[in-house]
Amino acid sequence: MQKAERKFGLQKTLYDGFNMFFVSLLDGSSAEIMRKKISSLLLGGHMPPLVHLSRYLEKSISDGSSGNYVQTKYVQEHLGNLARAVLMRYPILLQGPTSSGKTSLVWYLAAIPGHDFVRINNHEHTDLQEYLGSYITDTTGKLVFNEGVLVKAVRNGHWIVLDELNLAPSDVLEAFNRLLDDNRELFVPELQERIQAHPNFMLFATQNPPTLYGGRKMLSRAFRNRFVEIHVGEIPDNKLSKILEDRCKIYVGHAEKMVEVMKDLRLHRQSSRVFAGKHGFITPRDLFRWADRTQRFGNSNEDLAKDGYYLLAERLRDEDEKSVVQEILENISHGIRARFSDSLAIVFAVSRRPSAMVAGSPY
């Protein structure tokens, strides 16, 4: 609190504190209502001045500009929430649907002060040794301890992201207890050593909502209370098309059509017997792959159709599901050019031959 007050003054510090603990875990519409309420009570209805992200960080070797990272208002709000928590060195839990940009937010913010960024993907069989390390034999045959990625991050002050934390086994979660409290210590049983976290060390975790995704368990309330929780919602469709256009350097009309395809495929998700859930057919990550293919291998309407079909349909085993993808692409194509649908028919016919291949596909 005192550290923030010296930088920004009392009113700005109070506003940021209320935002960090009461606004960051809400969705977009609820967060906007709460922000207005906080500003009316603390600042007489006036919003505080905007502060550049770098001022929340200890140092800055970058101004935060990146050709590969598109900052919309939606993204800037999440970055601001992250930066406030980083200033206070609180552990951060980002919750949101798949492909909503949770990990990339941390990656981008870490690049501003130049911190090393480390990421661990969790699953139900994640072993504690992957985090802490284990004994191995070196080139001379001696038994030495090979430190795990978490131990190295704690020692050296890296920023680490624990992806899908609610998939990790209980023994892995228990190992974080002292690291998440005020002690910021990590105990390594094999070494019988308590490692004090480097001042620059930051721990982030991500999870998909367990009520919407199968196989995820609910993290206990006591465990979650150790984090500042930040809700990262789905990227709005109008923002997603802008991000596709700017990041992948594709024609704006193609970006909008890709988003339309995603919306229509989601409406058909319940007809799929292979995939379940809202993102059964497609996620925003698939759109970026589609856009990258189109940008690299041609930007014509025919290329857009071909790449979309190969990416979205050819991974499906059920012919009915492939037909759904084909139908959506055909319907969307009418708004671009009449002959687009004709070229799609050729692509579908060729792709369903046993010998059909995608030459030079990057994915």
From TrEMBL:
Recorded hits in InterPro entries, A to Z, give:
AAA_lid_7, ATPase_dyneun-rel_AAA, Midasin_AAA_lid_5, P-loop_NTPase
Provide the alphabetized UniProt keywords: ATP-binding, Chaperone, Nucleotide-binding, Nucleus
Q: Name one GO biological process term.
A: ribosomal large subunit export from nucleus
What is the name of this protein? Midasin
Q: Where does the record place the Midasin AAA lid domain?
A: 3-43, 240-332
Query: Which residue intervals define the domain ATPase dynein-related AAA in the entry?
Result: 91-227
Q: Which organism is it from?
A: Vigna mungo
The principal location of this protein is nucleus
| Top-rank lineage group of the source organism | Eukaryota
Give the CC-aspect GO terms: nucleolus; nucleoplasm; preribosome, large subunit precursor
